[in-house]
Amino acid sequence: MRICIVGIMVIPDEYLQASLDMVRPSYAHVLRPGTEVVLKSPKLALRGGSVTDPDNPYFAMLNKRPVVEAFIEAEREGFDAAIVQCFGDPGVREARAVVDMPIFGPGESSMHFACQLGRRFAIIGANIPGQLMQISDQVKAAGLEGRLIPNGIRFGSVFAKAWDGWCANPQSAVDDVIEVATGCVRDGADSVILGCAGIGPLCSKMGFNKLTVDGQTIPIIDPVTIAMKTAEMAADIKQGMGLPIPARATNFVLPSKQDWARVRSDFGLPT
Question: Are residues 183 and 116 in the same domain?
């Protein structure tokens, strides 16, 4: 089994292994020993500099194409499944319409998983401009507004100011999550999702996956963990039973070879 993690920013080759090591705590204890994981960087994408870039709708639209191209490349390289390393699930829907391997995003996967753990959930997002609207749209697209607690998308420290400190001391990220999550639980959340593919691995690195509030123990969900295990499970089911994943109907019907060549040629893309 080979699973590809597609990043959303350009990662120089010399940093790929270090970047994968940062994500490893999210999946090391849940994937089978024989499952190989590879991190793939888009060839042309955002290069960092500002964590707010992916939350600008125009920049995000531009960045989806190289992410989808990375998914296409991963399938051609023989991967069994793939995920995107971002809670916003950029490029997942688009890739499912042209790639025939299971593809998942941390956001969609973790929200549906939370619904299997309890009646209502909350999400602690990265404190970045535009995140409230983005995550709200994700919840609505998944049809899960009724499963979210009131004011169920909440934030801790400002991401841009706190990230370096969290990486240097992951316990500080955990402490920030605990403060916000405690309020979520007292307001009715049966589980709390970490709405960031960066914060999730930091908390998993510290072994932080549950929180006891007023005598009740609540799951703290790392979305990367759930996306990775979902991808592995889906690939197993597809290979073992022949179940079509993704489903092929309406907008997810694969294009014909002729349409594939015609449209990609119109945009100057290799066919």
Answer: yes
Query: Are 208 and 197 members of one domain?
Result: yes
Residue ranges, the chain, pLDDT below 50: none
- What pLDDT sits at residue 51? 58
- Residue 197's domain comprises 107-223
Q: Are residues 234 and 172 in the same domain?
A: no
User: Rounded CA gap, 84 and 197, in Å?
Assistant: 9
The DSSP line for 79-104 is: -SEEEESSTT-TTHHHHHTT--S-EE
pLDDT at 129: 81
Tokens coding 59: 């920049």
Q: Report helix, strand and coil shares of the chain as percent, to nearest 5.
A: 50, 20, 30
Crossing angle between the packed helical segments 131-141 and 106-117, to the nearest 10 degrees: 60
CATH assignment of the domain containing 35: 3.40.50.12500
CA distance 201 to 205: 6
Phi and psi torsions of 108, nearest 5°: -60, -45
Cis (ω within 30 of 0) for the bond into 33?
A: no
The tokens describing 21, both together, are 């090591």
Q: What was the pLDDT predicted at 241?
A: 96
**pTM of the shown model:** 0.94
Is the same domain home to 197 and 251? Answer: no
**Three-state DSSP class for residue 237:** helix
Residue 271 maps to a domain: no
